[in-house]
Amino acid sequence: MTFLKEESYGTVKAFFLSSAVWFVIGPLIGFIDAVHLAAPDLLGNISWLVFGRTRPMHTGVVIFGFIGTALIGSAFYLVPTLLRTPLYSERMGKLSLWVWNLSIASGTITLSLGYSQGREYAEWVWPVDLGVLLTFLLVFYNLFRTAGGRQEKTLYVSVWYIFAALIYSFLIYFFGNAAWSPSYGAITGLPDAVLAWFYGHGVVGLFLTPLALALAYYIVPVVCRSPLYSHSLSLLGFWSILVIYTHIGTHHILQTPVPSWLKVLAITGSLGMIFPVMTVLINLWLTMRGRLGMIHADMGGKFVMAGLVWYLLTCLQGPLQSLPMVQRVTHLNNWVIAHAHMGVLGFSGTIALGGIYFILPRITGRPIFNRRWADIQYWLVLIGMAGFFMVLTAAGLIQGNGWQNGLAVYKILPEIHIYMILRASIGLLIVCGASLGLINIYLSLYGVRGKGDTSLDQQGKT
Question: 36, 60, 65, 162: which has the highest count of C-beta atoms within 10 A?
């Protein structure tokens, strides 16, 4: 089977190309969502394009298809490189990608046909859940066996984050999707809401975040040609995020009759997240101190730097909106959607793109096909993300203020209609950036030498 053949860095290449394809599909479905909100009757009543189906299709493809695929592919590069040993099995790596892609595609198609478990971020039906869990097991086993034959005895913090992400992701996915309950994918009553948001928040904080930080901890020192400022700080940030992040999901359901002690735990944990976040950012910013020019001269470094800025903004806003007084205005409106876009696309998505552009020249032996295209994609994603943040935040505050003053929903909708039009327009920037990136990544892998970054030889192949 040629698709499972042994090939140097073949697993990484396949994951990156798959991610680029999913990056086109995810925002395209999101654009359809935005069109529904701006012009509900424009697309008619096509069953597989109604908002209730395309919205979970969009979130699943972006979280798992685009970002998750890129970050797992980066892990297949980081672990062997940092441990100075070949990947245990390229065939197993490619098999894990086929299972992963088949699961995401099946989940997307079944959602379009109306089959759903009806829980946010956990809508995929049970057979798809099994495929996702199997992928986590295959990836973990492959990388664990790789680590078992390592030449480098010191485990750099990126390796810690990668293995933690795989272990936690399997557990939160198994429990969050109630994998022991094939018929429903849920438990009953209020505990199901608590479990759902244990998973819903964890899929961002314990799947995407550790893998994105693993990339940042690797790329920043290499691009800056400077050692990490503090290995001790990096491990302090690692352990604190694992301890704190697991129990803060309940801040999404403060208005429900969950136990007060759980609400207090979630709020204090959310506020406590400032500690691990600032530990990470201070460590990385001190590493790049005086070397910002080097960061922005490297395409991968530029994306990572932008992602870290979004990480700061996301994790300042998150604790703020966990406070009950703030939630009275911000909850259940577009403010939360703005926050979700910041955390998923702004932080982890931008770093995932940085990982692709940083690693590609090092596994192909030649520069990115067209550096200018990559730069255009960078600005399209950055401007698009900034636009999402401003437009959705404004719409959310209008909604929250109106509800605080007793206005009915139908009276507020005309006021935010212009923001929904702007949202759809901004979405086109992301779709265009993703399409350009797909062409660039494909040609970087399989095309002729293009107008890439000619400084690769100077940067080295570390």
Answer: 162
